[in-house]
Specification:
Helices cover 31% and strands 19% of the residues. It is of the alpha/beta class and 430 residues long. The chain has 3 domains: 4-101 and 200-261, Adenylosuccinate Synthetase, subunit A, domain 1 (Adenylosuccinate Synthetase, Chain A, domain 1, 3-Layer(aba) Sandwich), CATH 3.40.440.10; 109-197, Adenylosuccinate Synthetase, subunit A, domain 2 (Orthogonal Bundle), CATH 1.10.300.10; 266-429, Alpha-Beta Complex (Adenylosuccinate Synthetase, Chain A, domain 3), CATH 3.90.170.10. The strands form 4 sheets. The protein has a 10-stranded mixed beta sheet, sandwiched between helices. Helix 2 packs parallel to helix 6 (183-197) and helix 3 crosses helix 4 (134-142). The longest helix has 21 residues, at 155-175. The relative contact order is 0.16. The protein binds guanosine-5'-diphosphate, 6-O-phosphoryl inosine monophosphate and magnesium ion (MG). 6-O-phosphoryl inosine monophosphate is lined by residues 8, 11-13, 38-41, 127-130, 132, 134-135, 223-225, 228, 239-240, 273-274, 299.
């Protein structure tokens, strides 16, 4: 199994960026296959922090090709800004190192406007989106009125598409009491950005196909997490794409069999940003402590992340629905010093104990976690680089997680730093 697909096994922010960056030393290509600049992936290399949203986490390695696949929604202005930002951190980005699928749908200013206007209209029932226009851009793709990267090279088509798209959306914006957007304004902005983005565009699927046939190793980098998947997550409090491993194939133009070992990135506790059910949430001293020690603030919006105990029911479900072969357990160090730890092993619903997250919104909101309590450890695991360095209780906690979720730990992360990582089983070796 020469390829690896990394996905989030919870509600995002599990540490995918760190793990992808670490694994990228063993890969030739890193490919993003869904999501957009709602993602925020943090890399820490020798004390230097790099925050990425749209750029694949392979971008920091000059000999690794980075690909933004067709399944990603691309905001051209956000991308250019991000490229400038990472260049200022001495990371070179050029068409030699970055390729964007020409068929990728674009996020236009109208998408952000709609996203924010709708959230405002939902009021207390808001989803808590990142406001980046992700949902509306995916809707346009499926509605077959989306503007794609390749359209920038065909001005007559582009004009037609922008006109069509805005005649549809301006009616909506009027209804929501938001300002309308003039097609000429969007076209002028697109014209300006075209020469800066088009040099990166190409047939990503063809390049990936050639690399695969040449025996190169591909690392697929997911964004968000399985519980934010539009089909398998806590709908409607989800993102608008499939975050499961199967999307790595569709979102890059590769055969399903090419996505290789599926590594689910899993935090040693649970966090969530935005609204929606969260059975093990600790809106108390424990939650505050996890948030402080884990520095749980959103990379993209700066919002405080909600924190709670490890939910084995949810991760087990993610393992099954997304086909996770092994996990990378991250942020174990955040639990250092806690006297007792809890793991959710089931949900109580209407007097019965169940072992899955129900689909209904009312049921999801009313499940009560059934906990198992384990002893914590007082020693530090921070920066540990071998399994033998871990306190006995940290080993017990990790083993219990493996048992409950039904997947082995392939990697363990003990700090934000790239090299504070313990390899148990090389995902590239299957
Ligand atoms: P992603 O969206 O899955 O890439 O995760 P984020 O980067 O949004 O959030 C994860 C945060 O945890 C980042 O600030 C990382 O630097 C940090 N992090 C990753 N792994 C570890 C770890 O093992 N221990 C600690 N303490 N922090 C970590
Ligand atoms: P990474 O890749 C955590 C959440 C938002 C909101 C919901 C829908 O860094 O793990 P959207 O803007 O996508 O329509 O918002 O999804 N969300 C994330 N939460 N990590 C992310 O990405 C997220 N991307 C979106 O907070 O609840
Ligand atoms: Mg993140």
């Amino acid at each position: 199994m020469a390829h690896v697909t990394v996905i989030g096994a919870q509600w995002g922010d599990e540490g995918k960026g760190k793990v992808v960056d670490w694994l990228a030393s063993r890969a030739d290509v890193v490919v993003r296959f869904q999501g957009g600049h709602n993602a925020g992936h943090t890399l820490v290399i020798d004390g230097k922090t790099i925050k990425l949203s749209l750029l694949p986490s392979g971008i920091v390695r000059p000999h690794t090709l980075s690909v933004i696949g067709n399944g990603v929604v691309v905001d051209p202005w956000a991308l250019i800004e991000e490229i400038e930002r990472v260049r200022a951190q001495d990371i070179p980005v050029s068409p030699e190192t970055l390729l964007i699928a020409e068929s990728a749908p674009l996020i236009l200013p109208v998408h952000g406007a709609l996203d924010r206007a709708r959230e405002l209209e939902r009021g207390a029932g808001k989803i808590g989106t990142t406001g980046r226009g992700i949902g509306p851009a995916y809707e346009d793709k499926v509605a077959r009125r989306g503007v794609r990267l390749c359209d920038l090279a065909e001005p007559p088509i582009l004009r037609e598409k922008v006109d069509h798209l805005l005649s549809h959306h301006n009616a909506l914006l009027r209804g929501l009491g938001a300002a309308e957007i003039a097609p000429a304004e969007v076209l002028a902005r697109l014209e300006e950005v075209t020469p800066r983005i088009l040099p990166y565009a190409g047939a990503a699927w063809e390049r990936l196909d050639a690399l695969r046939r040449a025996g190169k190793r591909i690392l697929f980098e997911g964004a968000q997490g399985v519980m934010l998947d539009v089909d398998h997550g806590t709908y409607p409090y989800v993102t608008s794409s499939n975050t499961c491993a199967a999307q790595a194939a569709t979102g890059s133009g590769m055969p399903a069999a090419a996505t290789g070992f599926v590594l689910g990135i899993t935090k040693a506790y649970t966090t969530r940003v935005g609204s929606g059910p969260f059975p093990t949430e600790q809106d108390n001293e424990i939650g505050r402590r996890l948030g402080e020690r884990g520095r749980e603030f959103g990379t993209v919006t700066g919002r405080k992340r909600r924190c709670g105990w490890f939910d084995a029911v949810m991760v087990r479900q993610a393992v099954r629905t997304a086909g996770i072969d092994g996990i990378a357990l991250t942020k174990l160090d955040v639990l250092d010093g806690l006297e007792e730890l809890r793991i959710c092993t089931g949900y109580r619903l209407n007097g019965e104990v169940i072992n899955r997250l129900p689909a209904g919104q009312m049921a999801q909101a009313s499940v009560e976690p059934v906990y198992e309590t384990l002893d914590g450890w007082s020693e530090s695991t921070q920066g540990a680089r071998s399994w033998a360095d871990l306190p006995a209780n940290a080993v017990k906690y990790s083993r219990r997680i493996e048992e409950l979720i039904g997947a082995p730990i392939a990697l363990l992360s003990t700090s934000p730093e790239r090299d504070d990582t313990i390899l148990m089983r090389d995902p590239f070796e299957g």
